[in-house]
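Can anyone check this?
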Amino acid sequence: MTLFVSHAACLDHDTTDNHPEHSDRLRAVMATLDAPDFDALQRMDAPLASDDQILRVHPQSHIGSIDLAAQQAGSGSPVFLDADTVVSTGSFEAAQRAAGAVCAAVDRVLSGQAGNAFCGVRPPGHHAEPTKAMGFCLFNNIAIGVRHAQQHADINKVAIIDFDVHHGNGTQAVFQADPSCFYASSHQSPLYPGTGSASETGVGNIVNVPLSEGAGTADIKIAYETQIMPALAEFAPDMLFVSAGFDAHEADPLAGLAFTTQDYAWLSDILCRFAADQCQGRLVSVLEGGYNLTALADSVSVHVKTLMKYA
């Protein structure tokens, strides 16, 4: 079965009124996955990530800075780490749960207790660099999950596919010098955070496919069929992770790509099929962006239905 990992504490990360990365995003995901179509999902409350798990990506100074900011926000006034990135009194636990969800999903998938997994968590993670929270992200959830997976004896090479509309600068920063990890991103450019040019190739393990504003179905199929999937196949990972941001949707307010809900069904299918053929089905997907609630809910629905088909 497909495993869904989340936690109510992720709703307590209060980003203030009118912030696009707000708790209603996760409520929309949870409501969608409560529908009868998803009765077969395994469900699990996310545990707290341990410091040891987080330390594989972030130094203790970074963990401490997020914890301290959450304590300083205890009076009810949020702490802004930058213009976009907010910490409230509930943010540290939410971030620990978000990272812990990915580690728990890895354990369930690698033990055979789940066929694959979707982690519906917030705050998101792919902009968080080892020593810097940014872009709504506090800890890099997927990077922490990848390093956790590599503690398992039969997982050596791991791949991450990131289809969020924004480039995952944090994930790239973690892995760009590590040939055991492959990272590929399709994203709008120019756009925040300004990284992700095609010339950024790491040690041959990074593939960036920048897309121009307005790019849609035909463009995404070309990007994946001619660039990302061939490079992924050549890398031949033992396990596949997906940074599942749904803000490239044509209805999303924060960017300008024109993906449809069915494009996410197509993307989910090619990634699940690859994992089934090449990774013994071992796939863990982690929620990143998506800021139109209806588009987010619809896109998560087709994504998780596809995971369930392959589990």
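Reply from J.R.: I decoded it. The beta strands are 2-6, 42-45, 79-80, 86-87, 116-119, 158-162, 181-188, 206-211, 239-244, 283-287.
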